[in-house]
Amino acid sequence: MLTPPRPPWLLLTLLALNGLAFSIGNTGQAKPNTYQSSEANVALSREDRSQILFSTGIQKALKGDYKHAIQDYDQALQLAPSNSEVYYNRGVAYFSINRPQSAFQDFSQAITLQPTMAEAYGNRGLIRQNLGDRKGAIADYQQAKRLFQQKGDFAAAQQMQNWINQQVNTTRL
């Protein structure tokens, strides 16, 4: 079975999209805000605490610490269970540690919560492809392609078309 390379948006695309609260130092590297006090924690809403955990999880995932990133994402979802971006990123982390069923569930939940998340369709399609579900992979790739086109991301849409063609050509062999 041919396995396509991971698309550039597979890993943590939401860093750029979400506008998370990072402080950028002179080194140009993103660092989470590490200031904590008991007074600040009391004043933070559940959503704010969830976003902090989400940000911390992203930082861990960027360092390759997917296990601990997943723990942060789990806690973030306990506080804000309808955050599609956390499900998406946890799905990426699960995929990265070779837990495709868990990743599939998270990408599916992200799609349920945000049906226009093209990246989740593309990643779910990749998992379906790896599991031998060509029809499901093609359906997800087609939806991802439509959504990427609507967003104006024609390079990602073309990548989806390439993967669709690959599935169709593999079926014909």
Write the layout of secondary structure elements.
Blueprint (H helix, E strand, L loop, with lengths): L13 H5 L3 E3 L5 E3 L5 H6 L2 H17 L3 H14 L4 H13 L3 H14 L4 H13 L3 H18 L2 H19 L1
Antiparallel strand pairs: 1-2
Biggest sheet layout: 2 strands, antiparallel
Helix share, percent: 55-70%
Give the C-level CATH assignment of the largest domain. Answer: Mainly Alpha
What is the tally of helical segments?
9
Strand content: under 5%
Average per-residue pLDDT, rounded, comes to: 82
Q: Report the count of strand segments.
A: 2
The CATH level-2 architecture of the largest domain is identified as: Alpha Horseshoe
Structurally, the number of domains stands at: 2
Fill in the CATH topology of the largest domain: Serine Threonine Protein Phosphatase 5, Tetratricopeptide repeat
> Strand order within the widest sheet?
1-2
Alpha carbon gap, first and last residue: 11 Å
Q: Give the helix/strand class.
A: mainly alpha
- Uncertain segments are 1-40
What's the shape? Answer: elongated
Using the CA coordinates, give the radius of gyration.
17 Å
The H-and-E topology, N to C, reads as HEEHHHHHHHH
Description:
There is one protein chain. The chain has 173 residues and is mostly helical. The protein has two domains: 7-102, Serine Threonine Protein Phosphatase 5, Tetratricopeptide repeat (Alpha Horseshoe); 115-173, Up-down Bundle (Methane Monooxygenase Hydroxylase, Chain G, domain 1), CATH 1.20.58. It is built from nine helices and two strands, in the order αββαααααααα. It has helices at residues 14-18, 38-43, 46-62, 66-79, 84-96, 100-113, 118-130, 134-151, 154-172; strands at 22-24, 30-32. Strands 1-2 form a two-stranded antiparallel sheet. β1 and β2 (30-32) form a beta hairpin. α5 packs antiparallel against α6 (100-113) and α8 runs antiparallel to α9 (154-172). The longest helix is centred in the C-terminal third of the chain and has 19 residues, at 154-172. The protein is elongated. The N and C termini lie close together (11 Å). The model is unreliable at 1-40 (pLDDT under 50).
